[in-house]
Amino acid sequence: MAEPQKSQFAQIEEEMLEVWGKEQTFQKSLEQREGAPYFSFYDGPPFANGLPHFGHSLVTSIKDSMLRYKTMRGYHVPRRNGWDCHGLPVEFAIEKQFGVSGKKQIVDLGLEKFNAACRDSIFAYKADWEQFLQRIGRWSEYDNYYATVDTNYTESVWWVLSQVHKKGLLYRGYKSMPYCPRCETPLSNFEVNDGYKDNVSDPSLYVKFKLKDEEAYLLAWTTTPWSLPGNAAVAVNPSEQYVYVNLTNDNGRPETLILSKKRLQILDKIDYNVVKEAKGEELIGLSYEPLFQLKDLDQHAGHEKLYRVWPAAFVSVEDGSGVLHVAPAFGEDDLTLGQESGLPVLSTIDASGKIKGGIGFDDVEGKFFKGADRPIVEFLTTKGLVFAAETFQHTYPFCWRCETPLLYYAISAWFVKVSAIKSELLKTAEEINWTPAHIKNGRFGKWLEGARDWGISRNRYWGAPLPIWVNEQDENDYIVVESIAKLQELAGGQANLDDLHRPFIDKVTFEKDGKTYRRIEEVLDCWFESGSMAVA
Ligand SMILES: [Zn+2]
What we know:
This protein has 536 residues and is α+β, with helices and mostly antiparallel strands. 30% of the residues lie in helices and 24% in strands. The protein has helices spanning 8-23, 25-31, 54-72, 88-98, 102-109, 111-121, 126-136, 151-166, 189-193, 280-283, 332-341, 373-382, 422-431, 438-441, 443-449, 484-490, 526-531, and strands spanning 80-83, 141-147, 170-180, 185-186, 196-210, 217-222, 233-236, 241-248, 254-260, 272-279, 309-311, 323-326, 386-397, 407-416, 454-455, 457-458, 468-471, 474-480, 510-512, 515-519, 523-524.
């Protein structure tokens, strides 16, 4: 059989590319327009540790057409290639290469070795990318490229962050992340999606919160008894109906419970009387007695707001009791509600998933969180605070690496206060000529309207280090360093700043006014880096 023939179109394209190459057509198109009106073009840099795919060819063709059009209209349109080099895609490939995963194993392997391998891998497919882009006919300066791994690029990103800080838009807060306590690392959402298991047996517990000023209990449902010591509030849906019901409890005593009217079916097997109805919003502000007596509560900002009923539209009346146990340390919605209400984050579990001391129930101290479920249910039962305890089967996420059950964990993180500049962002978006026009008020506009503060720190390794040095004695005293020169000045000219990556940058400490400053461990979200390209 004869060799398959290349199509005529493909041959014409290749001939054209050869002419452009020989005659330096792109370079000439720039030279001829030196001094003409400038058309600036910003392109999000792609990763070169993986191969391009169809989606890239579509987008790159559109960009190229636009720039050629502007060029033909007489504009000067310089364009440079750039490469995104940091972040999880690179780290995952290297974890695989070494057969390690999670914080413990990476630290055991050594950050220096890990990051060196990351650096070696970032341009693995650069030549393939360039060949792909050039074959499509994308005009760009391929040799004069920039990379987010470059020291001067990182320095620009530091400067951007220092400007954010100067404007009062940088702060430290909490972020609820799916977390593996064995790997001691937060997981991304797509990692979590890999690890769901069906038919997992867990407790189904109806627990009673005794109101302070009434002889009545709020009946809440939870599948995570281990999180109950971290309870900070109870939430109800303000627009739903709630009922007070009288019944006889297991000890033969009369008792009043409060639950959603739509959830009365959970009392099906019991004799009860509805004695009162109230809208959810009427319950707001009621105080209840905490299930656990935590030590040193008054050291938490906002402690005076603890143990009350709060409104939350996300409280479902489709399952449970319509009354939600809120533990800001252990749930995404819980943390959001806690932050909006100024509630403290009660972290009753340590980074390795073990129950901390000082929760008023020493028997579970040091136990792995899942192992604390049963003793906690027994403890509450003896105090007469359990209405019903059963087990049920549901779908639960596990760590895809080590099969440990995950938990949502509020980890300390750094944020850009996007909420403070949202109206300005919306105003600016209004002036942009969007293509296609419908995304202005559609997909993008909606996203902007719902924009929340941006968590920009990552508890990872291969990334631009956050330029924040914290006073060892006082975590609220910190310095955001804007440049290499500034850092060198602070370090008394003694620091080796040839490579700004971890672990080298972690060794840079300095003294100021008799206080020692040490860098926080986190690196920057690589989206903050690629988003800084216009400045860098
Ligand atoms: Zn794990």
